[in-house]
Amino acid sequence: MLRPLYNRILQLSARKDAVWWMAGVSFAESSFFPLPPDVMLVPMCLSEPKKLWRYTNICALASLIGGLFGYAVGFYLFESIGRLIIDFYNAQDSFQRFQDMFAEFGPWFLILKGVTPIPYKLLTITAGFAHLDLTVFILCSIVARFSRFYMIAILLHFYGPQVRDIIEKRLMLVTTVLLVIVIGGLLSFKFV
């Protein structure tokens, strides 16, 4: 089901107005759309390496704004729209687990999960539903989304096309390894 949509989104990355399409996909993925913007970000950055940071910033900013929409859906429209999105993705169990994790870990959960390629829409809707403080949500989302897309940009910057297959096939593994490195680095400062 997703393969034709994936192929269509990939085709959009070659258009002259691709940056707008990527921003739209990034916005939508944070609140309801099934595919991550990486599908467009990676080929766009590879085809125009000088625009890598510009594309990454646009992608992260659009994701942040889309996250605010997802938060509003969870906060104000959960019964009418939010529940439909959760049910569409058959994510009732994840939604309940995320509520429990928000209750236990609060904003740290949003930062850690927001960096991974799990569907961000589930986090944003759950954060709104859980009534996580909006300022905290925004700050955590800035850290999470910019970190997530910057990890991809850094890999593309240093390794270029050869990393594309790795990112597409093993995005969760790449993200987990980079997350462990970042957390390990932060913890090393704490204990020094």
TrEMBL record:
VTT domain span: 57-154
- Does the entry feature the keyword Transmembrane, yes or no? yes
The record ties this protein, via Pfam families, to: VTT_dom (PF09335)
Q: Which UniProt keywords apply?
A: Membrane, Transmembrane, Transmembrane helix
Lineage, top-rank taxon, reads: Bacteria
Q: Which residues cross the membrane?
A: 55-78, 171-189
Q: Which PANTHER family match?
A: ALKALINE PHOSPHATASE LIKE PROTEIN, DEDA FAMILY PROTEIN
Q: What is this protein called?
A: Membrane protein YqaA with SNARE-associated domain
- Native organism is Azospirillum rugosum
